[in-house]
Amino acid sequence: MPQHSPAQPVPALHAMTRPNRTEVYLESLQILERLHRLMLDLVKDEFERLGRSELTPVQALLIYNLGTSEVTAGELRSRGMYQGSNVSYNLKKLVELGYVHHERCEVDRRAVRVRLTPEGQQVRDCVGALFARHAEGLDMSGVLDDPMIEAVNLQWRRIERYWAEQIRYIY
Question: Where is the HTH marR-type domain (predicted)?
Fold first, then answer.
C-alpha cells in the first residue's frame, strides 16, 4: 500500500469515484426534456384514440392545468400552470374550439379571465384519467418506490427554485 507524506494528502474516496457533476446534470436535463416530449406524445395518442385530434397536446395540458380555476393568461404563466410563450395563441384557439370561455375582467378591462367550458372540463377529465392510469401502472411496477417519487419531486422543486433565483438574479 503506498504511503502518503503530509505534503501529499490522501485523495478523498468520493472524489475519485464521484462522476463528473456537469455530465450528470446535463444527462438529467436530457432525460427531463425526453420525458416532457414523451408526455406530450402520450397525450396526443390518447386524444387520437378518443377521436379528438383537433387539440394539440400542449392545448390539452393547458386545459388540464387550468382545471377549475378562472385566471388571466398572465396568471397561467406566473403560476407555472403553462410555460409556453404562445399562451395567448393557444387560449384563442381553445376559445374558438369551445373548450375555454373568456371575458374581460371588470376591475382591469385590459385583462381577460378564462375558465373551462363543460367541453373543456371533459378534456380535463380525459387527461386526468390518463395520468391516473399511468400513476397506477407505475406504482404497481414499483418504479415510484426507488427512490421514492416524493424525494425525486423534492429534488426537482429545489432545482426549480435554484433556476428561478438565477433568473431573478440576472434581472
Answer: 25-161
What distances in angstroms separate CA 151 from CA 8, 22, 97, 131, 140, one per listed residue?
39, 21, 39, 20, 18
Type of residue at 101: H
- On the 0-12 / 13-18 / 19+ scale of CB atoms within 10 A, 77 is middle
Give the pTM.
0.79
Q: What is the mean pLDDT of residues 128-140?
A: 97
CATH 1.10.10.10 corresponds to the domain 24-166:
yes
Distance in angstroms (rounded) separating the CA atoms of residues 102 and 121: 15
Mean pLDDT of 89-109: 86
Domain residue limits, the chain = 24-166
Q: Is 114 helix (H, G, I), strand (E, B) or coil?
A: strand
* Degrees to nearest 5, angle at CA 96 with 92 and 97: 115
